[in-house]
Write a structure and sequence with these properties.
heterodimer; A: mainly beta; 5-stranded antiparallel sheet; about 0% helix; B: mainly beta
């Protein structure tokens, strides 16, 4: 069964600090991995997509990494801001077959001033 | 484009009543998804459509749930009769038939069943 596990479940940091969120998956065969950001009261929005051949991808202060061998991904946030407070959801898709991606349960990040 | 539009944004109803949630996907998108989100279970896929045809409804929890997509610009999710355990945020999302399959989510409908 395809699974996506995220850690930690929740995280509290001070503004300006860095943090790293983890995602482990068992989805196979692998197609791509997305990180979504979900602000309170809104729908998730895609931050970045990683394909099999990509190891690192940046989107401003967000940097995602992918290790397809160990089936792990991380999302690193640099110099956190109050607006980074949100839930971050890891979503993994498989090639061919089902079009349905597998969602992690998300990491809730709170950035305090 | 205005993005995915959902209505209502909030719905409070009593147990046993019928609830209808509505969604307008982004124009030109071939896929439409209905999700339910709770604190305990996160995002769960209920059903998805491709070109207005239901493809997989295995996530629909019970016969009380039904979804339709009469045309490319409109879909409904109906719960009849509603129960308190149906309380959740329901999201609609749409995407193109492309390899990267990014889904664009609506703002959600927060449903409370008393």
């Amino acid at each position: 069964k395809n699974q996506v596990e995220q850690s930690p479940q929740s995280l509290i940091i001070l503004e300006g600090k860095n943090c790293t969120l983890q995602c482990n998956y068992t989805v196979s065969p692998f197609s791509n991995l997305r990180w979504y950001k979900q602000d309170t009261g809104r729908g998730p929005v895609s931050l970045t997509i990683m394909t099999f051949s990509e190891n690192t991808k940046s989107n401003g202060r967000y940097t995602a990494t992918l290790d397809a061998d160990t089936k792990q991904s991380s999302l690193h946030i640099t110099a956190s801001q109050l607006s980074d407070s949100a839930s971050y959801i890891c979503v993994v898709s498989e090639t061919g077959g089902s079009y349905i991606p597998t969602f992690g349960r998300g990491t809730s990040l709170i950035v305090h001033p | 484009d205005a993005g995915v539009i959902q209505s209502p944004r909030h719905e409070v109803t009593e147990m046993g009543q019928e609830v209808t949630l509505r969604c307008k996907p982004i124009s030109g998108h071939d896929y439409l998804f209905w999700y339910r989100q709770t604190m305990m279970r996160g995002l769960e896929l209920l059903i998805y459509f491709n070109n207005n045809v239901p493809i997989d409804d295995s996530g629909m929890p019970e016969d009380r749930f039904s979804a339709k997509m009469p045309n490319a610009s409109f879909s409904t999710l109906k719960i009849q009769p509603s129960e308190p355990r149906d309380s959740a945020v329901y999201f609609c999302a749409s995407s193109r038939a492309s390899g990267n399959n990014e889904q664009f989510f609506g703002p959600g409908t927060r449903l409370t069943v008393l």
